[in-house]
Amino acid sequence: MTEPGITFELKRGSASGPRLGLLRTPHGEVQTPAFMPVGTQGTVKALSPDDLTRTGTQIMLSNAYHLYLRPGTEILEKAGGLHRFASWQKPILTDSGGFQVFSLSQYRKIREDGVHFRSHLDGSLHVFTPENVVDIQRSIGSDIMMVLDECPPYPSTYEYARKSLDLTHRWAERARARFAATEPLYGYPQSLFGIVQGSVYADLREESVRFLIDLEFPGYAIGGLSVGEPKEEMLKIVRLTAQMLPKAKPRYLMGVGKPEDLVEAVSSGIDLFDCVIPTRNARNGTVFTSEGALVIKNARFKEDFRPIDETCNCYACTNFSRAYIRHLFQAGEILGLHLATLHNLTFYHRLMSEMRSAISAGRFDEWKALFYERYARDREAA
Amino acid sequence: MTEPGITFELKRGSASGPRLGLLRTPHGEVQTPAFMPVGTQGTVKALSPDDLTRTGTQIMLSNAYHLYLRPGTEILEKAGGLHRFASWQKPILTDSGGFQVFSLSQYRKIREDGVHFRSHLDGSLHVFTPENVVDIQRSIGSDIMMVLDECPPYPSTYEYARKSLDLTHRWAERARARFAATEPLYGYPQSLFGIVQGSVYADLREESVRFLIDLEFPGYAIGGLSVGEPKEEMLKIVRLTAQMLPKAKPRYLMGVGKPEDLVEAVSSGIDLFDCVIPTRNARNGTVFTSEGALVIKNARFKEDFRPIDETCNCYACTNFSRAYIRHLFQAGEILGLHLATLHNLTFYHRLMSEMRSAISAGRFDEWKALFYERYARDREAA
Fold first, then answer.
1. Which CATH architecture has domain B7-275?
2. Which residues of chain B make contact with A47, given a CB cutoff of 8 A?
3. Which residues of A touch B (CB under 8 A)?
4. Phi/psi of residue A145, each to 5°?
5. Which residues in chain A are contacts of B66 at CB distance < 8 A?
6. Which of B43, B79, B302 comes nearest A305 by C-beta?
7. What is the pLDDT of residues B171-207, one digit of tens each?
């Protein structure tokens, strides 16, 4: 087995409730709770790596599924891994591709060995197994790799969720074994996180936590949420799962979410997040402010010469008006997508930073009450 | 009449042959010969103003036609002009909209009063007159404004070119009068340049130069070229027109061109250029190097881990490989458009800078020979 790639230091907090932590990786530190922007194809859409750093990004998420299909592992290996290929020197976490494959509208079939699917690019047939998904992430060279899991749809019957969870667990064991049997390719250690599944069933989630703890992963993700279940149900599962997870290891809530979801999940003890909302919504013209979201394309911003958010010091807010950014969207200019993305990620990272400060000062509840007081003015959230 | 907005100092050179100059504007100095990137809608596509500055841009061109239609002069005036609206603090030159209107495939009709046309956005009817085109550019607040002209198509009969030139001249007089009768809106003086027309007919070009010199513009553009005529014909007209223009005033060759065209036109005594080639070709995946142009999407760059241009120090070349930029184009990522644009403009500005150095050192001919020696390797120019 290789030396451990990441270490996690819990600076404040406990198993449940908001936590302040420090995640150390071969590519630098991540102060948690932290948000990971999604760079599906090795780049966060509409930003350069320098821009991404300027937003306050500490760690980027990238998708094994997309990178496996294009540019492919051969080119990634020849480039010396994704950090070098994409010129991103901070940490990278890659998902396992499971979620992407299960979201495919094309052919996909779940078998014991893995998941058989057709590429969304050219229809070619592929198989993801717990083993080759580890291998793919070795080729990518991500600091944190994820095991292949099955993400059951919502709603799923108890019987289906039960069967699916058993498969996910067998796959987790196989991924763990493959990880132990292989070496990193680029001279720095990598880490493999487990993924808790179990749909919305509390006993399955509990069983999943126990099973994965036995496999001793250096970190745990909560998967299978934000797939259509009611928000209350999602937050309930997050709460009960987080409190069962080992206190000393980082917890990552996959694919969540809106600003208010992050606040709630941090309240429940989540350390890491990823979501396409800040970047995708930016490209659709929705920008986040401390008072709620704005649809910047709306005619009411035509002559609004204030910045997106008076309290934000990002490049977009310190140089451009809502009226100008609206003009860029109306005119179909790429700069509009760029500025909105830059702002939204800055907003997300500032939100996380505020939460870290509040936890550090022992005033998270006060901060949270203030957040809702301001953010409740939201009338246009996408 | 308002105080003169620009001044031009000829530092080296004469009426004909390569010239080194310094153009002073209310928004800063421009070392000539200079290339002006095209920011049609108030933004150079795929770049922020900060990025644009990083490429070495000294002055941006913007299109009166597009800005008049969207966002419109009312918003531009409320914003305090284009410099403030677009957060571009360096000089701006605006074309008169004439060329855009004459390029419209929709309805357009040239009359004595001006040109009647339908908007390409919504089909609405508009009229550009020599007078309102000055007014529009007052609203934009460009440092250098252009008169409304008629750009005759190629080929045009002598008779048509003759008639068209007379109209262009009557319009130039009217524009000059309107300019003298109006004041700038934003506290700094603006300047109005005349445009030499005459199609490919030497005597008409000569007549046009004489006519415009009498109107005493602070600078002169050569228009109506690069519209389909053979390159040799274009360069011949540039040569003969440039040498007739007043030595002490800046000359601007509109809409030209490829790197080799800039070299030839500088040889003939041109000081200013604008063209969409570096930015449009970038977005189509064609990048310029000191050895010629490359179509970066080509499969042969799949595993080419060298920068676009080994000798370039732009952000794209110092951080990314041809293989990665190709990946971005294959994957449809905006970052590809951004990096290619950044590089191409850096290349164009470096080319101009090299020419300025060579002129300054009295070695332009040597430099030009070396340029062709390297650049002749070009096998893929778009």
1. Alpha-Beta Barrel (3.20)
2. 335
3. 41-43, 45-50, 66, 70-71, 75, 78-79, 85-87, 302-303, 305, 315, 319-321, 323-324, 327-328, 330-331, 333-335, 337-339
4. -105, 155
5. 331
6. B79
7. 999 999 999 999 999 999 999 999 999 999 999 999 9
How far A345 CA lies from chain B's nearest CA (Å)?
16
Residues of A with active-site annotation: 95, 274
pLDDT in tens, A36-76: 999 999 999 999 999 999 999 999 999 999 999 999 999 99
Question: Rounded to a whole number, what is the distance in Å from the CA of B286 to chain A's nearest CA?
Answer: 18
Which of A333, A339, A341 would best serve as a mutation to test chain B binding (most B beta carbons within 10 A)? Answer: A333
3-state SS, chain A, equals: CCCCCCEEEEEECCCCCCCEEEEEECCEEEEECEEECECCCCCCCCCCHHHHHHCCCCCEEEEHHHHHHCCCHHHHHHHCCHHHHHCCCCCEEEECCHHHHHHCCCCEEECCCCEEEECCCCCCEEEECHHHHHHHHHHHCCCEEECCCCCCCCCCCHHHHHHHHHHHHHHHHHHHHHHHHCCCCCCCCCEEEEEECCCCCHHHHHHHHHHHHHCCCCCEEECCCCCCCCHHHHHHHHHHHHHHCCCCCCEEECCCCCHHHHHHHHHCCCCEEECCHHHHHHHCCEEEECCEEEECCCHHHCCCCCCCCCCCCCHHHHHCCHHHHHHHHHCCCHHHHHHHHHHHHHHHHHHHHHHHHHHHCCCHHHHHHHHHHHHCCCCCCC
Tell me how many residue pairs between chain A and chain B have CB atoms under 8 A apart.
Answer: 103
pTM of the model: 0.97
Q: Where are the domains of chain A?
A: 7-275, 282-375
The complex scores an ipTM of 0.96
> What would the pLDDT profile of B301-334 be if each residue is shown by its tens digit?
999 999 999 999 999 999 999 999 999 999 999 9
When CB atoms are compared, the residue of A41, A319, A334 closest to B46 is A334
Block means of pLDDT (10 residues each) for chain A, 382 residues, are 81 94 98 98 97 98 97 98 98 93 85 95 95 98 98 96 98 98 98 98 98 98 96 96 97 97 98 98 97 96 98 98 98 98 98 98 97 72 42
Residue B222 pairs in a beta bridge with: B196, B253
Which candidate in B334, B337, B341 is best for mutational testing of the A interface (most A CBs within 10 A)?
B334
Probe site for chain B from A38, A40, A43, A322 (most B CB atoms < 10 A): A43
**Could you list the active site residues of B?**
95, 274
